[in-house]
Specification:
The protein is built from nine helices and twelve strands. The protein is an alpha/beta fold.
């Protein structure tokens, strides 16, 4: 693929472990243990048809932590619509990509809660449950595997070259492309303008959002939100969509890595808005916190409104 992701975007084992450790973590109750729960009913979820994840044998399982629900061992991708009241519908849509280090998905804090808030603003939101890298089927085994990953974080293997990123995230990018194709195919039914479909991602979901933008071919997001994802420099295509970035300065993963992504967008003369919050850590999502990072969603909505995406298209 011609479009390439910047050199520091590829995942390493240590980075994946850290992403998982902090994904969806609220201000309080950080010592909450994982508690297994049954797979919740998801009657509105639509199978995307990208097939089962190759060589995955463990069934999809869910657990609760930090008062929120998480999925793992997702082998079949789905898209769940959260549609606004028709009287409030703007015609704009957003694909929501939760984070979790590509080992789990913060389905509630970074998925459903975001989608409901967008729908309340008249935006059709679609939560993407993308396929994940396999983990042990039992929860104790999963916790042990993550502990082993933490212990190896200090000796990370070399990061792959940027042209391997598309290969490493191939299943997830395929899921994102299928999501955009489905929304466009059913746009009349869902009262969505096919030219006004954006994407917002959190942590690993932000990585997927950027990968979808740069190497997702026919996905073509109209705008994108990168919420506490890596901010390494990338090669920006001339038609890159407007970009919204939110990050806490005390983010233990990406708060000290520079802001090359923002600089890349500016150098390419593409629209970009960057909110650097003094505090908030990683994984704040929709959790109510005492830090100003809680205001990221209102800022994102105002940014969308400034660009006209909250106004019905004439």
């Amino acid at each position: 693929m011609a479009r390439r992701i910047g050199r520091r975007k590829a995942l390493s084992a240590g980075l994946v472990a850290l992403l998982l450790a902090f994904a969806g973590r609220p201000a309080a109750a950080q010592s909450d243990r994982m508690t297994p729960i049954r797979v919740p009913d998801q009657p509105a979820a639509i199978t995307l048809g990208t097939g089962p994840l190759p060589n995955a044998t463990a069934p999809e399982t869910w657990h609760q932590q930090y008062g929120s629900r998480f999925a793992r061992n997702v082998t079949v991708a789905t898209l769940t619509p959260f549609l606004p009241n028709p009287k409030k519908a703007t015609g704009t849509a957003v694909v929501v990509a939760p984070g979790g280090g590509f080992r789990t998905l913060s389905m509630e804090n970074e998925g459903w809660d975001v989608a409901r808030a967008l729908a309340d603003r008249g935006v059709a939101a679609f939560v993407l449950k993308y396929r994940l890298n396999p983990t042990p089927a039992d929860l104790p085994g999963f916790e042990r595997a993550m502990a082993e990953m933490f212990s190896s974080a200090a000796t990370r293997p070399p990061r792959p070259a940027p042209d391997r990123m598309a290969t490493e995230l191939a299943p997830q990018i395929a899921d994102a492309r299928a999501a955009f194709a489905l929304i466009r195919r059913r746009s009349a039914e869902w009262d969505v303008d096919p030219d006004r479909i954006g994407m917002v991602g959190f942590s690993a979901g932000a990585m997927l959002t950027m990968a979808t933008t740069l190497v997702g071919e026919d996905a073509r997001p109209a705008f994108i939100g990168d919420i506490y994802g890596p901010l390494s420099a990338v090669t920006v295509p001339p038609d890159a969509p407007p970009l919204f970035v939110a990050l806490a300065a005390d983010d233990p993963l990406f708060g000290s890595g520079g802001y090359g992504l923002v600089d890349s967008w500016r150098a390419a003369k593409r629209p970009v808005e960057f909110h650097l919050y003094e505090q908030g850590g990683h994984g704040f999502g929709m959790y109510p916190k005492a830090t100003t990072s809680t205001g990221w969603f209102d800022a994102f909505v105002r940014w969308m409104d400034m660009h006209g995406w909250l106004k019905p298209k004439a």
